[in-house]
């Protein structure tokens, strides 16, 4: 008797993991962090993000210059084929500008991530105490 195993096809598209956001007051600026896996065989770029809890959502990168940290906005973030892009404190991150409500621990916030290939991913990001 022989057994045939069928291999699962590799995942495709974008897979978001390790998402979290910091608590913040209404009207303030909040930060969100996550990992995006580009499971496709072609490169893709994160081109925008949006959330109903903020007037605007921007991708920023913390850069060191002359011993000082500066946050620089990024218009796009490339993700190589079958590679991950990590957003974390002190590096790439999502800035939630002019929060329309407070972000409280144990809350979740909806966010839509849009990519250069025309697809988008909707995620629910938990608010946690860092």
Automatic annotation (TrEMBL):
InterPro entries in the cross-refs: LpqE-like, Lxx211020-like, PCuAC_sf
Transmembrane segments: none
Superkingdom field: Bacteria
This protein's name: Copper chaperone PCu(A)C
Species of provenance: Gemmatimonas phototrophica
């Amino acid at each position: 008797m022989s057994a045939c195993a069928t291999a699962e096809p590799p995942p495709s598209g974008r897979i978001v993991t390790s998402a979290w956001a910091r608590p913040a007051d209404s009207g303030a600026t909040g930060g969100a962090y996550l990992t995006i896996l580009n499971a496709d065989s072609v490169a893709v770029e994160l081109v925008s993000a949006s959330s109903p809890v903020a007037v605007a959502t921007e991708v920023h990168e913390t850069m060191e210059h002359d011993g000082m940290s500066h946050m620089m906005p990024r218009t796009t973030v490339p993700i190589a084929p079958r590679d991950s892009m990590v957003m974390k404190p002190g590096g790439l991150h999502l800035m939630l500008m002019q929060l329309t409500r407070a972000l409280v621990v144990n809350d979740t916030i909806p966010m839509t991530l849009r990519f250069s290939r025309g697809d988008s991913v909707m995620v629910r990001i938990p608010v946690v105490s860092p």
